[in-house]
Specification:
The complex is a heterodimer of chains A (about 220) and B (about 475).
Chain A: H1 2-15, H2 38-48, E1 52-56, H3 61-68, E2 74-77, E3 92-95, H4 102-106, E4 110-114, E5 117-119, E6 124-127, E7 144-150, E8 154-155, H5 158-170, E9 175-178, E10 183-184, E11 192-193, E12 200-206
Parallel strand pairs in A: 1-12, 2-3, 2-4, 4-7, 5-8, 7-12
Antiparallel strand pairs in A: 5-6, 6-9, 10-11
Chain B: H1 11-19, H2 22-45, H3 49-64, H4 67-80, E1 83-88, H5 91-104, E2 109-112, H6 116-120, H7 123-129, E3 133-136, H8 139-146, H9 163-177, H10 189-206, E4 209-212, E5 216-218, E6 223-228, H11 232-238, E7 242-248, E8 252-253, H12 259-270, E9 278-283, E10 293-299, H13 303-308, H14 323-327, H15 329-334, H16 345-356, H17 361-365, H18 375-379, H19 386-400, H20 408-419, H21 423-435, E11 445-446, H22 454-457, E12 462-463, H23 470-478
Parallel strand pairs in B: 1-10, 2-3, 2-4, 4-7, 5-8, 7-10
Antiparallel strand pairs in B: 5-6, 6-9, 11-12
Helix pairs in contact in B: 3-12, 9-10, 16-19
The chains are: A alpha/beta (about 220), B alpha/beta (about 475).
The structure holds iron/sulfur cluster.
The site of iron/sulfur cluster has 14 residues of chain B, from helix 14.
Chain lengths: ~220, ~475
């Protein structure tokens, strides 16, 4: 193994012998122009993926979450999810303590999480799996994902989101970028939603009414 | 070094066989046209797309010409993050490492994320030989695997199959290896997808080991990135206890910040979406979340040879988006199988002979599997000059081997003859040329062609293609459509 490592590195160094070593490119395509109405663009682009997206006032989150969960059975939530989002009656909630096996999750119908960033141009939500988003399996195995994003978390385009997420990555956190529900076009290029991931994605975009900073890990 | 597909004939022979397959041609035509149009629309949305392409190429050139340093940095970052790094000089060594790692866990099955790199090294076959079942979990790869078939496209590997064939494969094969397809399964795509979901979920839930590739590997942090649509990738990357990723050494990016360029370039170039449904990034082991045993196998398998060629090196910039396949008139006609490799189309024509050398007949013929129309360069998100590379590799083939076999010229003409036999194809090539700012005049013979085509046109006076299309000709000659 050590031999392979040495040999590969040796071959690469030899291959580059005499090669012009290209310089590191500077910061490249500049700041990305944000849309004048990032929230409206985000909503439009999420809808484009056949996900459900709604705009809600801070006071309306609990009711909107309850509506989104209507008709489902058990719901799993990450340990750091704000409890007041689940204020409505009649929702059977399990809080993930890390002990749920994949099989257990498979028997749960829905999950509610927060998000780290929303990307307007692409209609993407990004989870950095902080305490209000939970480990990766939570937002993967249940069939309905209800995701609450704050307007203050929106950015115009992908490069800005990378800037915001860099610290999480450097800190060792995984990221999951979600654009619409799971989908495939493998059969005659006909798009079918929901192959392995959640078949339904329901995004709630909360307006910037509350200026309370959100708890981060 | 893995060889070409066993028994694979040289490109012109395989191409002629593929040309006889009308179903495949129709499927491919529909697929490439659809993806091409989607791509064009979402690329047009982006301001300064050209700047992004230049940035993508520059980052890759930088990393490739400092690859020794960046690989060592990647190894350090991965190790710090709790992953174990392995180095594999060739396919055989990589397969041996992965097989041993899987064996150590005591499992006899693994789930797999679609990965060109593991296909390149023939990992599934190696695992089967060791008594370990490797389940492909991407829907298209599942269709290919259950059908005991070869992928024909990088992005949509089962595009040569229609829904009726897929239904038959599912009904016949699923039950032999797990949850059977439901009785009364129709060929509606949503029913087929649903039966794949049920079949695979059982495997995801019990799998102890997963195997993936990676689209990118960030040297700064040791972060790996997988881009996908179905969620099967997330299932594999998250649920099993052990994750083994086989990563070609050309996948390295210097920093997290560099992802901004590639996460814009890749989905738009590949599926023609603004963003693919799922992108996962992970950095070694995350306590309490996902696999706790994480292995990364860094694979050479001919890449350092390609790196040594100062012209050919740029092929290693490839991010496997498949845009060049979808615009290639040759690929559209013959399909992916004729290239004798997991890398078909224009990029296959330049990558395979470099990774595998040009000893075999198929690798010798691949640099000629092109009309040099330039459309592949126009769409390539990392600006790989595929036509120039093809010419470069033709020179290499000619230099390496003279006499005996049919000359490159003859092979090229065989490829070119059907290219010119259909006016739409020629027009498309012409449009490609126009896009690049080169326009052909209205004459009754083709004079000197600009750019890479000049070497071809300088040597002959080629007639403008006839008005009768290939399809009309075919009908007249064969009496069928
Ligand atoms: S060569 Fe360019 S266009 Fe073709 S698959 Fe690679 S990156 Fe995409």
């Amino acid at each position: 193994m050590i031999g392979s490592r040495q040999e590969m590195l040796g071959r690469i160094t030899a291959a580059l012998d005499g090669a012009e070593r290209a310089p590191a490119p500077g910061r490249r395509h500049g700041a990305v122009t944000s849309s004048p109405d990032v929230a409206a663009l985000f909503v439009e682009r999420v809808e484009d993926y056949r996900a459900v997206v709604e705009r809600v006032a801070p006071a309306g989150v609990a009711a909107a979450v309850a509506d989104a969960l209507a008709g489902t059975g058990q719901v799993v939530v990450p340990p750091g999810l704000p409890r007041d989002w689940l204020a409505a009656d009649g929702v059977d909630v399990v809080t993930d303590d890390g002990g749920l096996a994949a099989d257990d999750l498979d028997r749960i119908d829905a999950v509610v999480t927060a998000a780290a960033v929303g990307v307007a141009t692409t209609g993407t939500i990004v989870l950095d799996h902080g305490p209000d988003q939970g480990r990766r399996a939570l937002s993967l195995v249940p069939d309905l994902h209800v995701c609450v994003v704050h307007e203050s978390q929106l950015v115009g385009d992908v490069p800005e989101s990378i800037t915001r997420l860099r610290d999480a990555v450097v800190g060792g956190r995984p990221l999951t970028w979600i654009s619409g529900p799971s989908a495939t076009s493998d059969i005659e290029l006909e798009r079918v939603e929901g192959v392995h991931g959640p078949r339904r994605l329901h995004v709630l975009l909360v307006s910037d009414g509350d200026s309370t900073p959100r708890a981060r890990a | 070094m893995s060889g070409t597909f066993i028994g694979m004939p040289a490109f012109p022979v395989a191409a002629r066989e593929a040309l006889d397959n009308a179903q495949q041609r129709r499927n491919l035509q529909h697929a490439t046209q659809t993806i091409r149009d989607k791509r064009a629309a979402v690329v047009d949305e982006v301001d300064r797309w050209e700047e992004l392409r230049v940035a993508g190429a520059a980052i890759k050139d930088h990393v490739l010409t400092h690859l020794d340093g960046y690989l060592v940095q990647l190894e350090e970052s991965l190790t710090r993050a709790g992953a174990t790094v392995h180095w594999a000089r060739d396919a055989e060594e990589a397969n041996r490492i992965v097989t041993a790692l899987a064996r150590e866990t005591g499992t006899d099955e693994v789930v797999k994320v679609k990965s060109m790199t593991t296909q390149e090294i023939g990992l599934n076959e190696a695992l089967e030989d060791a008594g370990i079942h490797a389940w492909e979990t991407d829907l298209a790869e599942l269709i290919v695997q259950l059908g005991r078939d070869r992928p024909s496209h990088i992005l949509v590997p089962a595009i040569h199959r229609n829904r009726a064939e897929i239904r038959e494969i599912f009904l016949r094969e699923m039950g032999k290896v797990g949850t059977p397809a439901p009785e009364g399964l129709t060929s509606a795509p949503h029913e087929l997808a649903e039966s794949a979901r049920r079949h695979l979920r059982e495997k995801f839930l019990r799998a102890k080991v997963a195997i993936s590739g990676a689209n990118f590997a960030v040297a700064e942090t040791g972060t790996l990135v997988v881009v996908e649509s179905e969620g099967n990738g997330r299932m594999c990357l998250t649920l099993p206890e052990t994750l083994i990723s086989v990563v070609g050494i050309e996948k390295v990016l210097p920093t997290v910040a560099d992802l901004d360029v590639f996460l814009k370039l890749l989905p738009r170039s590949s599926t023609g979406e603004r963003m693919n449904p799922y992108t996962s990034t992970w950095t070694g082991v995350t306590p309490g979340d996902g696999p706790q045993q994480v292995h990364v196998v860094l694979l050479d398998n001919g890449r350092s040879d390609a790196l040594a060629d100062h012209v050919g090196r740029q092929a290693l910039r490839c991010i496997r988006c498949s845009a060049c396949l979808n615009v290639c008139p040759v690929y559209e006609r013959v399909g992916g199988h004729a290239y004798g490799s997991v890398y078909p189309g224009p990029i296959g024509a330049v990558l395979n002979p470099q990774l595998r050398g040009t000893e075999s007949p198929v690798d010798k013929s691949l640099p000629y599997a092109s009309s040099l129309c330039g459309a592949c360069f126009d769409v390539c998100p990392v600006r790989i000059e595929i036509p120039d590379l093809l010419v470069h590799l033709r020179t290499r083939v000619v230099d390496e081997k003279r006499g005996g076999l049919p000359s490159g010229e003859q092979l090229a003409m065989k490829g070119a003859s059907w290219m010119f036999a259909e006016h739409t194809r020629w027009e498309r090539a012409q449009r490609g040329a126009e896009l690049g700012g080169r326009v052909l005049g209205k004459k009754d013979s083709i004079g000197r062609l600009p750019g890479p085509l000049s070497a071809w046109s300088d040597a002959r006076d080629a007639p403008i293609p006839p008005g009768e299309s290939f399809r009309t000709w075919w009908k007249r000659e064969r009496g069928q459509g």
